[in-house]
Amino acid sequence: MSRPSRLQRQVLSLYRELLRAGRGKPGAEARVRAEFRQHASLPRSDVLRIEYLYRRGRRQLQLLRSGHATAMGAFVRSRGPTEESRGAGAAGTQPDKGDGPRNPFDSMGTPETTTDGR
């Protein structure tokens, strides 16, 4: 077997550091393992994606180590029959187009601009 590349060693080191930082924080170790398992099948040639995920993991590690994090979870958006029908939401809310991430500030009561400039 060939020697691991520098990037492989960095990813493995990040994995160990994330597991250590997540000890004692509910859901952290399971989340770290699940994230790494999910991306384990990436081809070695997809270096840009691997480097992106590595940088994202480094930022997560900084957050875990900062002391402000008490637990680690995931935001899951349910889809299916339990979801309200499109356009049937409360008055003044926009229907979900489902075409990407929503702005978290949309539902916080901030004024929205319309296309006519008001």
UniProtKB/TrEMBL annotation:
**The gene coding this protein:** SDHAF1
Q: Which family does the record assign? A: Belongs to the complex I LYR family. SDHAF1 subfamily.
Source superkingdom: Eukaryota
What's the protein called, per UniProt?
Succinate dehydrogenase complex assembly factor 1
Q: Where in the cell is it found?
A: Mitochondrion matrix
Write out the GO biological process terms.
Answer: mitochondrial respiratory chain complex II assembly
What organism is recorded for this protein? Answer: Ailuropoda melanoleuca (Giant panda)
Q: Name one GO cellular component term.
A: mitochondrial matrix
Pinpoint the Complex 1 LYR protein domain residues: 9-62
Q: What is its main location?
A: mitochondrion
